[in-house]
Amino acid sequence: MRKHFAKIKKVVLNLKFGFPKHWLKFGFSLRFSGFRSWPIWPSDWTGWLRFGILGLIIIYFLVGVGMVWQLRRAKNNFCQESIVADFYPLPAAYVAGEVIWRHNFCQLVKQNDYFYEVTKQAPPGREQLYQEISDLLIEDKILSSQARHYNLEVGWKDVEDTVDKMAEENGGADVLEKMLDETYNTTLHQFKKIVRVQLQREKLEKEIVIQVKARHILIKDEARTKDILQRLQKGDDFNNLAKEFSEDINSRDKNGDLGWFGKGQMVKEFEQAAFATPVGKIYDQLVKTEYGYHIIIVDEKKGQVDKSFNEWLKELKDKTRVWRVL
């Protein structure tokens, strides 16, 4: 028996398994005479403790493998999947080397299911819902990476201030917590995480993509608009003329101020003129749109990416390596 065992050992050690030979030699150090000859067999209580912990880890791993195998057999059984995801760190997707955990995915699915049930709205199909939630989590992971890259991460103080304001507008923190529990089956802590993701998206949209801060005078009659443009070119005050002649009731009393806007937020003709105008200058022609004739002055510009936020995000998603495990 020993001779046969020695021959088998010699053959196996000569095979090209891609493992270091000392690993195989370690395996052949076992003897048929009993387990006590195993080199790592515990000799004191600390050894037994390490051995017990190792055993628990192995059991945990094997049970997890069994659960995953069971999930593969019982596809679309979200109840089972949710239970397993609560106990085992299973991935839902990998985004540029970072993990989206299945637990987070299942949590959002449950919140959506609860919302549709409470509000009596017709939910989307399961495949559509899974796709939308996984897309959302992937976008959030990509934007989080970009926030770190540009040093634009949202702090928890900003989140707390936003949630406090929302609580104040809805009758207090207790009322807000009750509403979150009854409508979404979520806690205030979970809600703060969602708020942080939304604030992060808004901050990137405001700071990364190029934006323009502009004022305008809108008049439907072309001849009158030309006359006002000539007066401005001679040195008349833009604010006074905007208050007196602009037909845009939303901006007229604010000196024609439109605030900040990025690409894709205004009609095409207005956008092209505003982004082509240098800071502090009036666009030298009338801009005709479906609303009438505009005179545009650009006050400020900011940002680094010369495209709309959605275009920038789509470009990032196309370039990012994503592996969906779902």
Q: Strands, helices and their partners?
A:
Elements: H1 2-14, H2 21-27, H3 45-73, H4 78-87, E1 91-95, E2 98-101, H5 102-119, H6 126-149, H7 156-169, H8 173-184, H9 188-207, E3 211-219, H10 222-233, H11 238-245, E4 257-262, H12 268-276, E5 287-289, E6 292-302, H13 309-319, E7 322-324
Antiparallel strand pairs: 1-2, 1-7, 3-4, 3-6, 5-6
In total, how many beta strands? 7
Overall structural domain count: 3
What is the CATH domain class of the largest domain? Mainly Alpha
The total of helices stands at: 13
For the record, give the distance between the C-alpha atoms at the N and C termini, rounded to a whole number. Answer: 50 Å
Protein name: Foldase protein PrsA
Domain PpiC: 209-300
Organism: Candidatus Berkelbacteria bacterium Licking1014_2
Keywords: Isomerase, Membrane, Rotamase, Transmembrane, Transmembrane helix
